[in-house]
Amino acid sequence: MHIALDAMGGDYAPGPIVAGAVQAISQDGDLRVTLVGDEAQIQPLLDQFGRSDRLGVFHCSQAIGMEESPTVGLRRKPDNSISRCWQLLAQARVDGIVSAGNTGAMVAGGLMSRRFLAGVERPGIATIMPTMRGPCLILDVGANIYPKATHLYQYGVMGLIYARHILKKENPSIGLINVGSEDGKGPELHRITADLFNKFPIKGSYKGNVEGRDIHRGSVDVVICDGFVGNVILKVCEGITEFILKVVAREISESLTVERDKGINTLTNLAQKYHYSEFGGAPLLGIDGICIVCHGSSDDRAIRNALAVAARHARAGLNQLITKELESQQQHLSLASI
Question: What percent of the chain has pLDDT above 70?
Fold first, then answer.
């Protein structure tokens, strides 16, 4: 299993990126990682964290900053680490790519490569969200803010495959995020998408419209939305989680005496369990290959887990399963290319 890792991507790169790669290969004896970036910065870190014959370096001279325009950065900096990761994937020299760099550039690089799975018109970023009934998948959370109804339908197919084979949901259910649960709610895009799900049932249970509050209740296993709404949901949930944990920790610290340390330790463990770094990163589904997009502030633990996620997806044959399901739906979608 060979993964290309963008060593220059992220708020704190390359230090925690290299450290995470070293940790990942120490945990997975069948994993190889190629660090893509400035060799002059990477080599001293390998001396510090540890070298291995399963850790390689692919030198490139440029990196796209987190605040740069994705398309401008890709055009003006052809030797950037994100483009080189996509190049390695396009040449089939690696099984997957991982980056905590500029998300827009990662998605744009995938669109420029045109390495889409058969039957996929636009890839989407998926993320796992904890709920009262176990994890659920939200798709899309930032790759496609102007989707067509067929894109959202394809996200439903990919999301159900992911839920069934990665989240191990025996009979996953799917819902379309909307401003109300009643039929006919929302703009035209949502009504057309709902009509596609109703007309062309996929191998899962379509529950219709769901609201934002239904996500953490675990009402469905897969939540479908456009990239703008999905990204807002993701960032709001991150902020609320951080806020609640800090408020509760402060209340415990101020009100308890004997049991205070125990309570704070419990909250600390809870915060670590649901922190984004524990989930590693979000897969860009619909790409012919494995692509994991990480949080910009990813630390070494997040990178280690992202590499583990990439390897797990590749070993599960996720893309082959998605392609097979999409092929069975292709006739429906060609009749309703909306």
Answer: 88
Q: Domains of the chain by range and CATH?
A: 2-120+286-316 (3.40.718.10), 124-274 (3.40.718.10)
d(CA 223, CA 214): 10
Task: Express each pLDDT in 84-121 by its tens digit.
Answer: 999 999 999 999 999 999 999 999 998 888 788 888 99
* Residue 302 confidence (pLDDT): 92
Inter-axis angle of helices 39-49 and 15-27, to 10 degrees?
A: 50
Q: Using CA atoms, how far apart are residues 132 and 126, in angstroms rounded to an integer?
A: 19
Contact 105, 73 (CB under 8 A): yes
pTM of the model: 0.86
CB burial string 135-174: b at 16+ within 10 A, e below = bbbbbbbbbbeebbbbbbbbbbbbbbbbbbbbbebeebbb
HEC assignment per residue over the chain = CEEEEECCCCCCCCHHHHHHHHHHHHHCCCCEEEEEECHHHHHHHHHHHCCCCCEEEEECCECCCCCCCHHHHHHHCCCEHHHHHHHHHHCCCCCEEEECCCHHHHHHHHHHHCCECCCCCCCEEEEEECCECECEEEECCCCCCCCCHHHHHHHHHHHHHHHHHCCCCCCCEEEEECCCCCCCCCCHHHHHHHHHHHHCCCCCEEEEEECHHHCCCCCCCEEECCHHHHHHHHHHHHHHHHHHHHHHHHHHHHHCCCCHHHHHHHHHHHHHHHCHHHHCCEEEECECCEEEECCCCCCHHHHHHHHHHHHHHHHCCHHHHHHHHHHHHHHHHHHCCC
Single out the residue of 282, 38, 281 nearest to residue 159, CA to CA: 282
**Rounded to whole angstroms, how far apart are CA atoms 183 and 181?**
7
CB 62 within 8 A of CB 81: yes
CA atoms within 13 A on the CB side of 176: 30
